[in-house]
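ingest -> validate -> predict -> emit
validate: passed (alphabet ok, no gaps, 201 aa)
predict: started
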Amino acid sequence: MKLTASLLLSLVWVTASTARAEEHRGDHRDERHEEHHDEHHEEHRPDQRAEQHHDEHHPDARDERPEWRGGPPPQVRNAERRPEPPRWQPHPGGAHPHGPMVRPHAVRVLRPTVIRYGAHQWRHWEHPAFSRPAYYWDWHNVRQVTCVAEDSYGDQYPVTEDAWRGFALTNMSDVEDDALDRCYQESGGDPSCYLATCSHF
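emit:
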């Protein structure tokens, strides 16, 4: 009987000691895991910041537009160098300096023509020189560009062309000229055709 009681006491003592040891070991393991997790987290935080910083200043890194298909992009027809626009400054409030636009009839918008960049399906019109628009666009987000030319009657001639990785300000002159060429040809040679607007998505 004494032997059974002492055996039972020994078994209880060993079980309690083992349980305490396991708890103690678990506490150390949790502390080490938390320290390791914190160190790991701290180690990766600067890299993530660096990647975000890199992406902000190098938008081309995220450029998902397709490459130009069919060899290198065609030569820019209009070789004039277009400077980057000055910093954006909104106009002061109030009336437009030219006054309201009044037309004798409603503007007519012809069907959009979608062409491949560089196709130039209209004969090139040697239009008078004009001040090219300043574009405040994120070029790496441009997928398609539409330029609209307008004749003296108010008829508009939109031309849409695909953009690709590397499409930028220097390519815009060609798209603008395609819209002007379409306007001149389809209006019967109206010398008053002018570039109304360009937009993208």
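The beta strands are 108-109, 113-115, 144-150, 155-162, 194-200.
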